[in-house]
Design brief:
alpha/beta; Rossmann fold; six-stranded parallel sheet; 16 helices; 14 strands; 14% strand; binds uridine-5'-diphosphate-xylopyranose
Length: 437
């Protein structure tokens, strides 16, 4: 099948290359000429384990084409995925859909045979209806169908999540025509056991938002219970195991830590509350999740300040600054609040990240140093803050690296056993476990 992805960002690139790996001819379109030229040379704009190899393999096999020629790609494809960015709107409370509608207008003028237009970008409830009206301006409704097919890929695990999803959701108001085609596109995944759910189009749009809001709620719940554990010397890991063993609750997404971040949870929870508010529905639970998560970075900052006891000469080293491990993405990372907070309080901070120095921190040059090496960072620091859960942070020989000096560790991801630091001239703090601040 010939398909095209409009927007070769995270979602477009990962999904596009995997569909090409299944044997389709895929056009990955982007208006950014430099990005397209780089992709043709095997240079990937994002960090995603395994993606580069797949891009190079399928590009060489001529199964994926990178192009800026949107019109040609539309005309040659039967299925057109809209995967352009939907950033937060200026006031931060909803999604900016100008990119999506722009693309819809161009598609509208270039429908030369029956096409399925699929929204892959996360779009608010009713966006499919709006796209449909744009397409109807120039075409009879028999020439196209608009479908919602949300993605549930996690950064860092995107390739595995694409190949082995818990479910594929197809939202359509014309299932008889659309489903056989979408089913054959997803056949390699369905044949491996993924659930294939067919729902009404707007239901699919809401499933995506409700999923992310639920997961954000789950994380926020365990983070708040961790606060309670800290006051009562109870181990949050025992609680997560205890409640997670109930199949109705489930054990995943119960890792207490810093505030959740990334390109989806913060943006999607806010957009969902806004959509509901416009319909006079008060999603008070999700609103409070947003508030609780916003407060969490200040809480972690105040804990670090408490550990430091106002000793301004203490050197603070951050291990990992992205919003989680296995990604280079800084979007809504809690480090963006905690590190400037420490600098504002007069501390010097250094950081190491497996994905390198971050331009977004350049503004703090004099008070924030990037150290290109984990061992040096630990050796130079009085307080090490473990901010993300990269594998290389999980078995650091702190005793050897600290030399003879004292060291404090604040492990925001509970990667170590607190007892292993007893009597080692290392003070160890973590989240929601005994021995805490
Ligand atoms: C998320 C959804 O999981 C994915 O389905 C959707 O398509 C996009 O948004 P992603 O943002 O890549 O994916 O990361 P995810 O692994 O879900 O983590 C999001 C945030 O929650 C991170 O800040 C992470 O550190 C945090 N988190 C996750 C926890 O604090 N505890 C957990 O148990 C799980």
């Amino acid at each position: 099948m010939n398909i095209c992805f409009i927007g070769s960002g995270y979602v477009g690139l990962v999904s596009g290359v995997l569909f090409s790996d299944f044997g389709n001819l895929v056009y990955c379109v982007d208006k950014d000429k430099k990005k397209i030229a780089n992709l043709e040379n095997g240079k990937i704009p994002i960090y995603e384990p395994g993606l580069e190899e797949l891009v190079i393999k399928n590009f060489k096999a001529k199964k994926i084409k990178f192009t800026t020629d949107l019109i040609k790609s539309i005309r040659q494809s039967q299925i057109i995925f809209i995967a352009v960015g939907t950033p937060s709107s200026k006031d931060g409370s909803s999604a900016d859909l100008s990119g999506v509608f722009n693309v819809a207008r161009i598609i509208s003028k270039n429908i030369n045979s029956y096409k399925i237009i699929v929204t892959k970008s996360t779009v608010p409830l009713g966006t499919g209806d709006k796209i449909e009206s744009i397409l109807k301006l120039n075409n009879s409704s028999k020439k196209f169908d608009v479908v919602s097919n949300p993605e549930f890929l996690r950064e860092g695990d995107a390739i595995r999540d694409f190949r082995f999803p818990d479910r594929v959701v197809i939202g359509t108001n014309n299932p008889d025509k659309v489903i056989p085609i979408m089913k054959s596109l997803y056949a390699p995944i369905i044949n491996k056991g993924a659930k294939f759910l067919v729902v009404e189009r707007r239901a699919a749009e809401l499933i995506k938002y409700a999923s992310n809001a639920f997961l954000a709620t789950k994380i926020t719940f365990i983070n708040e219970i961790a606060n309670l554990c800290e006051k009562t010397s109870i181990n949050i890991d025992d609680i997560a195991l205890g409640i997670g063993s109930d199949a109705r609750i489930g054990s995943r997404f119960l890792r207490a830590g810093p505030a959740y971040g990334g390109s989806c949870f913060p943006k999607d929870t806010k957009a969902l509350v806004k959509t509901a508010r416009n319909l006079n529905i008060d999603l008070s639970l999700v609103s409070n999740v947003i508030k609780s998560n916003d407060k969490r970075s200040s809480l972690i900052l105040s804990k670090i300040l408490k550990i430091l006891k106002n000793k301004k000469n203490q050197k603070i080293g951050f291990l990992g600054v992205t919003f989680k491990a296995n990604t280079d993405d800084m979007r809504d990372s809690s480090s963006l609040k905690i590190i400037p907070g420490l600098i504002k309080n007069g501390y010097n901070v250094s950081y190491y990240d497996p994905t390198g120095k971050k331009d977004i921190f350049n503004q703090y040059n004099s008070s924030l140093e990037y150290i290109d090496n984990l061992s040096d960072l630990v050796t130079k620091s009085d307080l090490v803050v473990i901010h993300t859960e990269w594998d290389e942070f999980k078995s650091i020989n702190f005793i050897e690296l600290k030399k003879n000096k004292k060291l404090i560790i604040f492990d925001l991801r509970n990667l170590y056993d607190p007892k292993s630091f007893l009597n080692k001239k290392i003070k160890y703090f973590s989240i929601g476990r005994p021995f805490n601040v």
